[in-house]
Specification:
The structure is a single chain. The chain is an alpha+beta fold and 498 residues long. The chain contains 14 helices and 22 strands. Helix 2 (47-62) runs antiparallel to helix 3, helix 4 packs antiparallel against helix 5 (143-151) and helix 6 (197-205) packs across helix 14.
Length: 498
């Protein structure tokens, strides 16, 4: 086997992953949602898919995979098509699904032929706005085109001042799924540690959403909350920021006190810091929590479930379809995302709640058919590069999961069955993580520098989470004995941000 340096390995991964975007992308400049092992492209795309292609093109340029001329031509074509896409006139927001070849708004779902009700998603539009901001900073010659599209996008459109939160989305045309007569979704995005905060960040940075909104989102549900459907009883303190009382709650899991995500997946917690240096801007909050969250995922895969691998996030299911995967204990949702196809969950109980008495956690033998997705491992790259690369290497040695387009989307680590497809979103997360690692966070700076830093850095610096290791040791000093055959004790090292 050829011996490569860490940088050579990352460069190899980036070059192969970029090839998937070459195959994914139509002449329109819009990427397909996914491609199969045969190279068959999906006929539809979304704002998030388009965003993933744009920032991956910038990474490919900066990593020397393609020339600056090719990168500019590709992104210019995408911007030209974007400028012609139908969108909601009042808000300037893009619809959720378009024909990838023609750019037409979809009203019929291609795989089934069923009617599709156009929808505006705050988080999907957030990712597209992220990519447009990056283009404006990375390609001055295309700044006018990118800004012309961005300027019309109003994220205040989703803001509900009665609760201080963003709504999930809006149906311009009445839909059977619609609950409220005003056509907004009935739910708000109320959990801080999820990918949905990217829309909040952009709205705050552009002056469309008030800054105190950031503190309206829950770190956990309050410990006195009458709604008992959260994963475990949180503990913490009450603090006030910008006039907002915040319950600085956390969960305790395997010696770690941390702020959970919604379902316990890596995507929810760690996609946003690909673009926003939260750990540096919030040293007493995200700077501690992000490495802890990675440790929680590692501990689940290696100790609690004894898979021998880790990295759990929504992905294709090797058995067919698409599923949400995660670490149940790292999510606020009581019946959160399982890490396996057999849906093994935990219940830590909740004092004073009927039916929520403490229960014994499942033994490792209960965790059968675990599903690991490589993009989840790449999301940890900035916070534990050694463990991430070791896990990826082990996945490559154990399964047929790597090929000419980079990593296939997921693997059942019990059966070895691999999902032989690649998804634009998942490949985009991998490319962004690799770009930050190879190019000294230059892709991240394309988004974070300027108005984003000016608005968000002082905001994030205010907060102090109630998180840390219950052993009194920081994550870079956690010695973990893995009770798994053929595994010696391993020192899990973490790159702490300064």
């Amino acid at each position: 086997m050829q011996i490569r340096s860490q940088r050579q390995t990352l460069q190899m991964f980036a070059s192969a992953t970029w090839q998937s975007f070459v195959v994914l992308t139509y002449p329109s400049g819009l990427p397909a949602d996914h491609i199969s092992v045969t190279g068959e492209r999906a006929s539809y795309t979304s704002p998030t898919n388009i965003a993933a292609y744009i920032w991956s093109t910038l990474v490919a340029r900066d990593a020397g995979i393609i020339t600056p001329i090719e990168a500019e031509a590709r992104i210019q074509q995408t911007l030209q098509t974007l400028a012609c896409l139908e969108r909601h006139a009042t808000s300037g927001q893009f619809y959720n699904w378009y024909d990838a070849a023609t750019g037409a708004k979809l009203t019929v779902w291609p795989p089934s032929g069923k009617r599709l009700y156009p929808f505006l998603s705050s988080v999907d539009n957030g990712w597209l706005a992220t990519a447009l901001i990056m283009v404006a900073n990375a390609l001055p010659q295309l700044r006018t085109q990118a800004n012309a599209i961005l300027e019309a996008m109003d994220f205040g459109f989703y803001y509900d001042p009665t609760v201080g939160l963003l709504r999930g989305g809006y149906w311009p045309v009445p839909s059977p799924r619609q609950v409220h007569t005003n056509r907004y979704t009935c739910h708000h995005y109320g959990a801080l540690n999820t990918e949905t905060r990217i829309a909040s960040y952009i709205g705050i940075a552009r002056g469309q959403i008030p800054a105190p909104h950031y503190f309206r989102m829950g770190r956990t549900f309050p410990d006195t909350c009458v709604w008992n459907e959260q994963e475990m009883q949180p503990h913490g303190v009450l603090r006030n920021y910008l006039g907002v009382d915040v319950f600085e709650g956390c969960y305790s899991y395997m010696g770690l006190n941390l702020v959970p995500s919604w379902g316990g997946s890596m995507f929810e917690a760690l996609m946003v810091p690909l673009f926003v240096p939260e750990a540096r801007w919030g040293p007493q909050s995200w700077g501690i929590n992000h490495p802890l969250y990675v440790q929680g995922q590692i501990l689940h895969g290696m100790v609690e479930a004894c898979y021998g691998y880790w990295g759990f996030s929504p992905s294709t299911n090797p058995a067919g379809g698409y599923r949400e995967y995660g670490v149940d204990a790292l999510g606020m949702l009581a019946d959160g995302y399982a890490s396996n196809n057999d849906n093994t969950l935990v219940d830590y109980g909740f004092t004073g709640r009927p039916g929520r008495g403490a229960r014994l956690s499942p033994p490792p033998s209960a965790y059968t058919n675990g599903i690991v997705t490589p993009h989840a491992v790449f999301l940890a790259l900035d916070f534990d590069p050694e463990a991430s690369l070791a896990n990826l290497e082990k996945l490559c040695q154990g399964f047929d999961i790597y090929g000419e387009w980079g990593f296939w989307d997921a693997v059942n680590v019990a059966t070895g069955e691999v999902s032989r497809s690649v998804l634009a979103l998942d490949q985009g997360m991998i490319m962004m993580a690799l770009g930050n690692a190879l190019c000294h966070n230059r892709p991240q700076r394309y988004f974070a520098d300027g108005m984003v830093e000016a608005a968000l850095r002082p905001l994030l610096a205010l907060e102090e989470f109630t998180v840390g290791s219950t052993t009194g040791m920081m994550p870079d000093a956690l010695l973990v004995d893995w009770p798994v055959a053929n595994h010696a004790p391993v020192l899990i090292s973490t790159c702490m941000h300064s």
